[in-house]
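[audit] Reproducing an earlier prediction to check determinism. Same input, same settings, fresh worker. If the tokens differ from the archived copy the diff job will pick it up downstream; this log only records the rerun itself.
[audit] input (142 residues):
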Amino acid sequence: MYLTRIIYCSELASEANKDFIINEDIISNILAVSRRNNAINNISGMLLYSGNYFLQCLEGSRLDVNKTYNRILLDIRHNNAILLEYGEIIQRDFSAWNMGYAGGSDIKEIIQAYSVGSDFSPYYMSGKSALNLLKALKNIAS
């Protein structure tokens, strides 16, 4: 089966905040579940969360990536999911992680280099810009 990459963006659903005290709890939960499930399904990737927006890359077999993305679409913590890029790849860019993560105010300068304005809005990014942003964040990701 071919290696596939998906890049999508979404917004944190306001309903999700009812179950968690602060956004950091939501992100911690998403990362823990994602890392566990992605390890089982041999998926690598990177997640950026900033300003209530998610930008995520998933890499793996076509079947596993599609199944994972479909679960995300049904996740009540995500609203307005938009697919920015989908395609076959030769190799993984985020093979070091089941789910790398970048977030917080210390990445604002890097984000601005790939954004159309001063505020991060992945809905105004091309798939290539989104991928390059996530690659730029690899060195500071956890």
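[audit] rerun output stored. Observation attached for the diff report: Residues 3-140 form a domain with the Alpha-Beta Plaits fold (CATH 3.30.70.100).
[audit] end
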